[in-house]
């Protein structure tokens, strides 16, 4: 990408914020490489430590019956009576997923109709 039309260095330095128009300019024109470099620079300014932490996250899909019809989805089953549909008991999953190293759990129901 040619140099942005605005002062990207001030954004990275934290002395200015991206406007909507500037973000759109980057969205349309910036390379993934440039975005990655700028993001890394901003990250290093905010967190200069030489380590990163993370959260072990677990999404519990307690059912695969869903009323949404996302075109990319191979997970969804439209009907409860489909041969491979399931609805788990949340209590069982809570027990199965408890313990050290699992910091965060997200029961997800997709978009199942009530
Ligand atoms: S909401 Fe989730 S489960 Fe439902 S169709 Fe979309 S991607 Fe699939």
How would you describe this protein?
The structure is a single chain. 33% of the residues lie in helices and 9% in strands. The longest helix is centred in the middle third of the chain and has 15 residues, at 32-46. The chain folds into two domains: 8-46, no CATH class; 54-114, no CATH class. The protein has 114 residues and is α+β, with helices and mostly antiparallel strands. Iron/sulfur cluster (SF4) binds at residues 66, 68-70, 73, 75-76, 110-111.
Query: How far is it from the N-terminal to the C-terminal residue, by CA?
Result: 49 Å
Neighbour order of strands in the largest sheet = 1-2
Into which percent range does the helicity of residues fall? 25-40%
Estimate nothing, just give the exact number of structural domains. Answer: 2
Radius of gyration: 22 Å
Secondary structure class reads alpha+beta
Residue stretches low in confidence (pLDDT < 50, at least 5 long) are none
Shape: elongated
Task: Describe the SSE topology.
Blueprint (H helix, E strand, L loop, with lengths): L7 H6 L6 H10 L2 H15 L10 E5 L28 H7 L7 E5 L6
Parallel strand pairs: 1-2
Q: Any descriptors?
A:
2 strands; alpha+beta; single chain; 114 residues; binds iron/sulfur cluster
A few lines on this structure:
This protein folds into 2 domains: 8-46, no CATH class; 54-114, no CATH class. 33% of the residues lie in helices and 9% in strands. It has helices at 8-13, 20-29, 32-46, 90-96; strands spanning 57-61, 104-108.
